[in-house]
Amino acid sequence: MKIAITTDHSGFESLKELASFLRDLGHDCIDFGPTSFEPDDDYPDFMFPAAQAVADGSCDVAIIMGGSGQGEAMAANRVKGVRAAVFYGPVVAKTAVDAEGNMSDDPYEIIKLSRQHNNANVLSLSARFLTMDQMKQASQLWLETPVTDVERHLRRIKKLDE
């Protein structure tokens, strides 16, 4: 899979290790920067090109990173055709996690749901809230989770992209 990767200063060191991990899994990572650590950089400058690469099909998906991952996802979601999901830590659902009433005690279930139900094509990670092991686990699980073919989910995704 061809993956656009990028960060702002908050994830500068982490992104290198995550990209190496993804390459070891057999993925082709296209690095959208930054090329040097600049504590005053602006995350949209890096998020927009990575998101555009997903939207135009030159990359299959993107994994982006920033302090919280929130602003980075907001920037990516401004690009038509991008569906960015934020992950800033493992959590267990307190109520049913799907329409069928299924429960899960998997702290990474939200990662799976972002792919299965929402066909997220960008994963935004929090450099300040996640350990490297959590970033690796979340990224691998997200990349390996198939998108559902359930009509109601496909219908909703289509509405997002229109």
What descriptors fit this protein?
five-stranded parallel beta sheet; 162 residues; globular; Ribose 5-phosphate Isomerase B, Chain: A; alpha/beta
What can you tell me about this protein's structure?
The chain is 40% helix and 15% strand. It has helices at 12-24, 44-55, 70-76, 109-116, 132-144, 151-161; strands at 2-7, 28-31, 61-66, 84-87, 122-126. The model has no long low-confidence stretch (mean pLDDT 92). It has a five-stranded parallel beta sheet with strand order 2-1-3-5-4, with helices on both faces. It is globular and about 45 Å long. By secondary structure, it is α/β, with parallel strands linked by helices. It is built from six helices and five strands. Helix 1 packs across helix 5 (132-144), helix 2 (44-55) packs across helix 3 (70-76) and helix 4 runs parallel beside helix 5 (132-144). The chain has one domain (2-161): Sugar-phosphate isomerase, RpiB/LacA/LacB (Ribose 5-phosphate Isomerase B, Chain: A). Helix 1 links the parallel strand 1 and strand 2.
